[in-house]
Amino acid sequence: MRIGLFVLLVAAAISIAAASSIPAGELPHDPLEHDSLHHKHFDGDQHNQQYDHEAFLGADEAKKFDELTPEESKRRLGVIVDRIDEDKDGFITLAELKNWIKFTQRRYIDEDVGRVWRKHNPENNETVSWETYRKTVYGFMDVLDKEELEQEENGVSYKSMLARDRRRWAVADLDLDDELTREEFTAFLHPEEHPSMRDLVLQETTDDLDKDKDGKISVDEYIGDMYRPSEANEEEPEWVLAEREAFTKHRDLDGDGYLTETEIRQWIVPNDFDHAESEAKHLIFEADVDHDEQLTKDEVLDKYDVFVGSQATDFGEALARHDEF
Ligand SMILES: *[C@@H]1O[C@H](CO)[C@@H](O)[C@H](O)[C@H]1NC(C)=O
Protein backbone atom coordinates (compact mmCIF):
# COMPACT_ATOMS: atom_id res chain seq x y z
CA MET A 1 0.00 0.00 0.00
CA ARG A 2 1.15 3.55 -0.64
CA ILE A 3 0.53 4.28 2.99
CA GLY A 4 3.15 1.64 3.75
CA LEU A 5 5.69 3.56 1.77
CA PHE A 6 4.70 6.76 3.41
CA VAL A 7 5.10 5.38 6.91
CA LEU A 8 8.45 3.97 5.95
CA LEU A 9 9.70 7.25 4.57
CA VAL A 10 8.52 9.27 7.50
CA ALA A 11 10.22 6.78 9.77
CA ALA A 12 13.34 7.19 7.65
CA ALA A 13 13.09 10.96 7.87
CA ILE A 14 12.69 10.82 11.62
CA SER A 15 15.63 8.50 12.07
CA ILE A 16 17.83 10.70 9.88
CA ALA A 17 16.74 13.60 12.00
CA ALA A 18 17.50 11.74 15.21
CA ALA A 19 20.96 10.85 13.98
CA SER A 20 21.76 14.47 13.21
CA SER A 21 19.86 15.70 16.28
CA ILE A 22 17.60 17.89 14.23
CA PRO A 23 14.47 18.74 16.15
CA ALA A 24 11.56 16.75 14.74
CA GLY A 25 9.52 19.92 14.59
CA GLU A 26 11.84 21.24 11.91
CA LEU A 27 11.11 18.39 9.57
CA PRO A 28 9.12 19.15 6.48
CA HIS A 29 5.44 18.49 6.23
CA ASP A 30 5.20 15.01 4.78
CA PRO A 31 6.87 15.80 1.47
CA LEU A 32 6.49 12.27 0.28
CA GLU A 33 2.86 11.84 1.02
CA HIS A 34 0.61 11.97 -1.95
CA ASP A 35 -1.35 8.80 -1.74
CA SER A 36 -4.66 9.36 -3.36
CA LEU A 37 -7.39 8.01 -1.16
CA HIS A 38 -8.40 5.62 -3.89
CA HIS A 39 -5.00 4.18 -3.87
CA LYS A 40 -4.80 3.53 -0.16
CA HIS A 41 -8.06 1.75 -0.01
CA PHE A 42 -7.95 -0.64 -2.85
CA ASP A 43 -4.40 -1.82 -2.71
CA GLY A 44 -3.59 -4.98 -0.92
CA ASP A 45 -7.18 -6.15 -1.32
CA GLN A 46 -7.35 -5.96 2.39
CA HIS A 47 -10.27 -4.29 3.93
CA ASN A 48 -8.75 -1.30 5.65
CA GLN A 49 -10.98 -0.25 8.48
CA GLN A 50 -8.96 2.77 9.46
CA TYR A 51 -9.39 4.01 5.93
CA ASP A 52 -13.19 3.72 6.21
CA HIS A 53 -13.15 5.62 9.48
CA GLU A 54 -11.09 8.40 7.99
CA ALA A 55 -13.31 8.66 4.94
CA PHE A 56 -16.40 8.77 7.12
CA LEU A 57 -15.15 11.09 9.87
CA GLY A 58 -12.09 12.84 8.46
CA ALA A 59 -8.65 11.90 9.80
CA ASP A 60 -8.72 14.26 12.79
CA GLU A 61 -12.16 13.18 13.97
CA ALA A 62 -11.27 9.51 13.43
CA LYS A 63 -8.37 9.97 15.85
CA LYS A 64 -10.67 11.51 18.44
CA PHE A 65 -13.10 8.62 18.12
CA ASP A 66 -10.26 6.21 18.74
CA GLU A 67 -10.08 7.48 22.28
CA LEU A 68 -13.77 7.06 23.09
CA THR A 69 -15.51 4.17 24.79
CA PRO A 70 -17.77 2.11 22.50
CA GLU A 71 -20.84 3.61 24.22
CA GLU A 72 -19.74 7.19 23.65
CA SER A 73 -18.67 6.63 20.06
CA LYS A 74 -22.05 4.98 19.36
CA ARG A 75 -23.85 7.93 20.88
CA ARG A 76 -21.89 10.38 18.72
CA LEU A 77 -22.40 8.22 15.65
CA GLY A 78 -26.17 8.48 16.25
CA VAL A 79 -25.89 12.28 16.21
CA ILE A 80 -23.90 12.15 12.97
CA VAL A 81 -26.46 9.86 11.33
CA ASP A 82 -29.17 12.43 12.01
CA ARG A 83 -27.02 15.06 10.38
CA ILE A 84 -26.30 12.97 7.28
CA ASP A 85 -30.02 12.35 6.77
CA GLU A 86 -30.58 15.71 5.07
CA ASP A 87 -34.29 15.28 4.29
CA LYS A 88 -34.97 13.70 7.70
CA ASP A 89 -36.91 10.76 6.27
CA GLY A 90 -35.13 8.23 8.47
CA PHE A 91 -33.03 6.81 5.65
CA ILE A 92 -29.50 7.54 4.56
CA THR A 93 -29.30 7.33 0.80
CA LEU A 94 -26.21 6.92 -1.35
CA ALA A 95 -26.37 10.61 -2.32
CA GLU A 96 -26.60 11.75 1.31
CA LEU A 97 -23.72 9.57 2.37
CA LYS A 98 -21.63 10.73 -0.56
CA ASN A 99 -22.27 14.38 0.37
CA TRP A 100 -21.22 13.68 3.90
CA ILE A 101 -17.97 12.01 2.86
CA LYS A 102 -17.13 14.95 0.60
CA PHE A 103 -17.88 17.33 3.43
CA THR A 104 -15.64 15.55 5.95
CA GLN A 105 -12.83 15.37 3.42
CA ARG A 106 -13.04 19.10 2.65
CA ARG A 107 -13.18 19.89 6.35
CA TYR A 108 -10.12 17.80 7.06
CA ILE A 109 -8.04 19.32 4.26
CA ASP A 110 -9.10 22.80 5.23
CA GLU A 111 -8.11 22.32 8.88
CA ASP A 112 -4.88 20.62 7.96
CA VAL A 113 -3.87 23.36 5.55
CA GLY A 114 -4.90 25.98 8.11
CA ARG A 115 -2.55 24.53 10.69
CA VAL A 116 0.45 24.46 8.38
CA TRP A 117 -0.39 27.83 6.84
CA ARG A 118 -0.47 29.50 10.26
CA LYS A 119 2.85 27.94 11.13
CA HIS A 120 4.57 29.31 8.04
CA ASN A 121 2.65 32.53 7.86
CA PRO A 122 1.77 33.76 11.35
CA GLU A 123 0.95 37.29 10.11
CA ASN A 124 -1.48 35.77 7.62
CA ASN A 125 0.02 37.55 4.63
CA GLU A 126 -1.60 37.03 1.26
CA THR A 127 1.21 34.70 0.17
CA VAL A 128 4.25 32.79 1.43
CA SER A 129 7.45 32.87 -0.58
CA TRP A 130 9.47 29.78 -1.38
CA GLU A 131 12.46 31.28 0.39
CA THR A 132 10.50 31.75 3.63
CA TYR A 133 9.16 28.24 3.43
CA ARG A 134 12.56 26.78 2.57
CA LYS A 135 14.23 28.53 5.49
CA THR A 136 11.72 27.24 8.01
CA VAL A 137 11.60 23.69 6.77
CA TYR A 138 15.03 23.08 5.28
CA GLY A 139 17.11 25.86 6.81
CA PHE A 140 19.04 23.33 8.90
CA MET A 141 20.54 22.03 5.65
CA ASP A 142 22.56 25.22 5.21
CA VAL A 143 25.16 23.99 7.72
CA LEU A 144 25.40 20.39 6.50
CA ASP A 145 28.16 19.19 4.20
CA LYS A 146 27.65 17.50 0.87
CA GLU A 147 27.90 14.02 2.29
CA GLU A 148 25.31 14.70 4.97
CA LEU A 149 22.96 16.19 2.41
CA GLU A 150 23.22 13.23 0.09
CA GLN A 151 23.22 10.47 2.66
CA GLU A 152 20.34 8.20 1.78
CA GLU A 153 18.11 6.16 3.92
CA ASN A 154 15.67 3.98 2.00
CA GLY A 155 16.49 5.99 -1.08
CA VAL A 156 15.65 9.31 0.53
CA SER A 157 18.09 12.08 1.40
CA TYR A 158 17.62 15.65 2.60
CA LYS A 159 18.67 16.78 -0.82
CA SER A 160 16.02 14.68 -2.56
CA MET A 161 13.34 15.84 -0.10
CA LEU A 162 14.16 19.45 -0.83
CA ALA A 163 14.20 18.83 -4.57
CA ARG A 164 10.80 17.19 -4.42
CA ASP A 165 9.27 20.00 -2.40
CA ARG A 166 10.80 22.55 -4.74
CA ARG A 167 9.31 20.89 -7.79
CA ARG A 168 5.94 20.53 -6.12
CA TRP A 169 6.00 24.19 -5.09
CA ALA A 170 6.69 25.24 -8.67
CA VAL A 171 3.76 23.22 -10.01
CA ALA A 172 1.38 24.55 -7.35
CA ASP A 173 2.45 28.12 -8.11
CA LEU A 174 -0.06 28.84 -10.88
CA ASP A 175 0.79 32.53 -11.33
CA LEU A 176 4.54 31.86 -11.31
CA ASP A 177 5.55 34.47 -8.73
CA ASP A 178 7.29 31.81 -6.61
CA GLU A 179 4.92 32.62 -3.78
CA LEU A 180 1.89 30.56 -2.85
CA THR A 181 -1.51 31.87 -1.90
CA ARG A 182 -3.44 29.77 0.56
CA GLU A 183 -5.26 28.13 -2.30
CA GLU A 184 -2.02 27.29 -4.09
CA PHE A 185 -0.59 26.11 -0.79
CA THR A 186 -3.53 23.70 -0.49
CA ALA A 187 -2.57 22.17 -3.84
CA PHE A 188 1.01 21.96 -2.61
CA LEU A 189 0.08 20.09 0.57
CA HIS A 190 -2.71 17.96 -0.88
CA PRO A 191 -1.87 17.50 -4.54
CA GLU A 192 -3.97 14.35 -4.81
CA GLU A 193 -7.12 16.47 -4.64
CA HIS A 194 -6.11 18.93 -7.36
CA PRO A 195 -6.61 18.32 -11.06
CA SER A 196 -3.72 20.67 -11.88
CA MET A 197 -1.39 18.50 -9.79
CA ARG A 198 -2.25 15.20 -11.44
CA ASP A 199 0.85 14.93 -13.58
CA LEU A 200 3.00 15.71 -10.59
CA VAL A 201 1.35 13.04 -8.44
CA LEU A 202 1.96 10.64 -11.26
CA GLN A 203 5.60 11.69 -11.48
CA GLU A 204 6.20 11.41 -7.73
CA THR A 205 4.60 7.99 -7.58
CA THR A 206 6.69 6.77 -10.48
CA ASP A 207 9.84 8.18 -8.87
CA ASP A 208 9.08 6.32 -5.65
CA LEU A 209 8.33 2.97 -7.20
CA ASP A 210 10.73 2.89 -10.10
CA LYS A 211 13.80 1.73 -8.21
CA ASP A 212 15.90 0.87 -11.28
CA LYS A 213 14.98 4.18 -12.93
CA ASP A 214 14.00 2.70 -16.28
CA GLY A 215 10.84 4.79 -16.39
CA LYS A 216 8.41 1.92 -15.89
CA ILE A 217 7.21 -0.19 -12.99
CA SER A 218 7.90 -3.92 -12.95
CA VAL A 219 5.74 -6.29 -10.95
CA ASP A 220 8.51 -6.56 -8.34
CA GLU A 221 8.74 -2.79 -7.98
CA TYR A 222 4.97 -2.70 -7.66
CA ILE A 223 4.98 -5.36 -4.93
CA GLY A 224 8.11 -3.92 -3.26
CA ASP A 225 6.15 -0.81 -2.45
CA MET A 226 3.64 -2.67 -0.29
CA TYR A 227 5.47 -5.71 0.94
CA ARG A 228 8.98 -6.61 1.95
CA PRO A 229 9.77 -10.10 3.21
CA SER A 230 11.23 -10.06 6.72
CA GLU A 231 13.45 -13.05 5.86
CA ALA A 232 15.21 -13.84 2.63
CA ASN A 233 13.15 -16.80 1.47
CA GLU A 234 9.94 -16.13 3.30
CA GLU A 235 6.89 -17.40 1.48
CA GLU A 236 4.68 -14.57 0.20
CA PRO A 237 1.38 -14.24 2.00
CA GLU A 238 -1.89 -14.79 0.16
CA TRP A 239 -2.67 -11.08 -0.29
CA VAL A 240 0.68 -10.46 -1.98
CA LEU A 241 0.00 -13.26 -4.45
CA ALA A 242 -3.41 -11.70 -5.05
CA GLU A 243 -1.69 -8.36 -5.72
CA ARG A 244 0.65 -9.99 -8.22
CA GLU A 245 -2.37 -11.37 -10.00
CA ALA A 246 -4.09 -7.97 -9.87
CA PHE A 247 -1.02 -6.41 -11.46
CA THR A 248 -1.21 -8.82 -14.38
CA LYS A 249 -4.97 -8.80 -14.76
CA HIS A 250 -6.00 -5.24 -13.99
CA ARG A 251 -2.99 -2.92 -14.01
CA ASP A 252 -0.71 -4.10 -16.80
CA LEU A 253 -3.30 -3.51 -19.49
CA ASP A 254 -1.10 -4.28 -22.50
CA GLY A 255 0.44 -7.34 -20.86
CA ASP A 256 4.09 -6.37 -21.43
CA GLY A 257 5.06 -7.03 -17.81
CA TYR A 258 5.46 -3.35 -16.89
CA LEU A 259 3.31 -0.41 -15.97
CA THR A 260 4.09 2.40 -18.33
CA GLU A 261 2.88 5.97 -18.05
CA THR A 262 -0.68 5.42 -19.31
CA GLU A 263 -1.15 2.39 -17.10
CA ILE A 264 0.24 4.15 -14.04
CA ARG A 265 -2.09 7.06 -14.73
CA GLN A 266 -5.10 4.76 -15.03
CA TRP A 267 -4.16 3.23 -11.70
CA ILE A 268 -3.23 6.32 -9.68
CA VAL A 269 -5.37 9.11 -11.09
CA PRO A 270 -8.10 7.54 -13.22
CA ASN A 271 -10.33 10.12 -14.85
CA ASP A 272 -13.53 8.32 -14.08
CA PHE A 273 -12.99 7.55 -10.42
CA ASP A 274 -15.20 9.15 -7.81
CA HIS A 275 -13.71 8.32 -4.45
CA ALA A 276 -16.63 9.62 -2.35
CA GLU A 277 -19.14 7.61 -4.34
CA SER A 278 -17.10 4.46 -4.20
CA GLU A 279 -16.62 4.79 -0.44
CA ALA A 280 -20.33 5.54 0.11
CA LYS A 281 -21.29 2.43 -1.85
CA HIS A 282 -18.84 0.37 0.13
CA LEU A 283 -20.22 1.58 3.48
CA ILE A 284 -23.80 0.92 2.40
CA PHE A 285 -22.84 -2.54 1.22
CA GLU A 286 -21.27 -3.28 4.62
CA ALA A 287 -24.27 -2.23 6.70
CA ASP A 288 -27.38 -2.67 4.54
CA VAL A 289 -28.85 -5.76 6.17
CA ASP A 290 -32.23 -5.61 4.39
CA HIS A 291 -30.70 -4.83 0.98
CA ASP A 292 -32.84 -1.81 0.18
CA GLU A 293 -29.72 0.20 -0.76
CA GLN A 294 -30.18 2.76 1.95
CA LEU A 295 -29.39 2.74 5.66
CA THR A 296 -31.49 3.26 8.75
CA LYS A 297 -29.95 4.53 11.96
CA ASP A 298 -30.20 1.02 13.43
CA GLU A 299 -28.31 -0.48 10.52
CA VAL A 300 -25.51 2.04 11.00
CA LEU A 301 -25.36 1.59 14.77
CA ASP A 302 -25.39 -2.22 14.46
CA LYS A 303 -22.25 -1.93 12.33
CA TYR A 304 -20.74 0.90 14.27
CA ASP A 305 -17.22 -0.51 14.01
CA VAL A 306 -17.39 -0.13 10.22
CA PHE A 307 -18.09 3.60 10.55
CA VAL A 308 -16.21 4.68 13.63
CA GLY A 309 -15.12 1.93 15.97
CA SER A 310 -11.80 2.18 17.63
CA GLN A 311 -8.25 1.14 16.98
CA ALA A 312 -7.52 1.09 20.68
CA THR A 313 -7.51 -2.42 22.04
CA ASP A 314 -7.56 -1.25 25.62
CA PHE A 315 -10.03 1.51 26.33
CA GLY A 316 -8.82 1.89 29.88
CA GLU A 317 -5.36 2.67 28.64
CA ALA A 318 -6.57 5.08 25.98
CA LEU A 319 -8.68 6.93 28.51
CA ALA A 320 -5.89 7.07 31.05
CA ARG A 321 -3.64 8.56 28.41
CA HIS A 322 -6.31 11.11 27.71
CA ASP A 323 -6.64 12.02 31.39
CA GLU A 324 -3.03 13.06 31.60
CA PHE A 325 -3.88 16.22 29.75
C1 LIG B 1 4.58 39.10 5.99
O1 LIG B 1 4.70 40.43 5.52
C2 LIG B 1 5.57 41.26 6.32
C3 LIG B 1 5.49 42.67 5.76
O2 LIG B 1 5.74 42.69 4.37
C4 LIG B 1 6.98 40.69 6.29
O3 LIG B 1 7.86 41.47 7.08
C5 LIG B 1 6.95 39.24 6.81
O4 LIG B 1 8.23 38.67 6.71
C6 LIG B 1 5.94 38.43 6.01
N1 LIG B 1 5.82 37.09 6.61
C7 LIG B 1 6.10 36.00 5.93
C8 LIG B 1 5.92 34.71 6.66
O5 LIG B 1 6.48 35.97 4.77
From TrEMBL:
GO CC term (a single one): endoplasmic reticulum lumen
Signal sequence interval, chain numbering: 1-19
Localisation: Endoplasmic reticulum lumen
EF-hand domain sequence ranges: 72-107, 197-232
Pfam families noted in UniProt: EF-hand_5, EF-hand_7
Membrane-spanning ranges: none
GO molecular function list: calcium ion binding
GO process terms (BP): protein transport
Domain of life: Eukaryota
Keyword Glycoprotein on entry: yes
Gene3D superfamilies for this protein: EF-hand
Alphabetical keyword list: Calcium, Chaperone, Endoplasmic reticulum, Glycoprotein, Metal-binding, Repeat, Signal
Subunit structure: Interacts with PCSK6 (immature form including the propeptide); probably involved in the maturation and the secretion of PCSK6.
Function summary: Probable molecular chaperone assisting protein biosynthesis and transport in the endoplasmic reticulum. Required for the proper biosynthesis and transport of pulmonary surfactant-associated protein A/SP-A, pulmonary surfactant-associated protein D/SP-D and the lipid transporter ABCA3. By regulating both the proper expression and the degradation through the endoplasmic reticulum-associated protein degradation pathway of these proteins plays a crucial role in pulmonary surfactant homeostasis. Has an anti-fibrotic activity by negatively regulating the secretion of type I and type III collagens.
Protein name in UniProt: Reticulocalbin-3
Gene designation: LOC117570346
